[in-house]
Description:
Elements: H1 5-21, E1 31-34, E2 41-45, E3 53-58, E4 63-65, E5 109-116, E6 122-124, E7 137-143, E8 151-154, E9 159-163, E10 169-176
Antiparallel strand pairs: 1-2, 2-3, 3-4, 5-10, 6-9, 7-10, 8-9
Amino acid sequence: MIIHVGIVLGILSAVLLLAQTLEPLRETPIRMKGSASYTNSVEVYDSAATPALQSRFDSGGAFNTAKQVGSTLATGTAPFAVTSTTPVANLTAVPAIYNKVGTQQTAAHLVQDTCTLGTDCAVTLSGSAVFTSATSYTCVCEDDSAIAACRVSQTSGTAFTVTGTGTDVIRYICAGN
């Protein structure tokens, strides 16, 4: 089997970067070895009596780890730079919500849905949709059936009522924490 020198150097560079990242953990040495089961890869193990695989770097540039990925970058510096626009199923991005003086609101989220006046516009939020209090979020509504006004009255962090004309369908969106 021929291993391209550039691939090996790239993998070793990644391993050195990992070693620098793990510098604070010097009292726990790591072990590295090439892998027969994964072509052209370098594996990093812990120093337990029976070493456990912690990370793997392959020749294609992929990095796999059994540990949490951390960053020590200062606030204001993005810890990831991603070109792909493909969404990741188990990764969510929370919208940044600020008050009028620019203070970011923590635990912010959005709730969006529809209701039909006269049937289900007394909305009860549950689970991850719940807000902290009646004043920690704002809802706006739009009548989908006609050019007519609608109004949202927030009674608590778990409930609000939408009122409007007749039996129109109303879209609403709420934002806050």
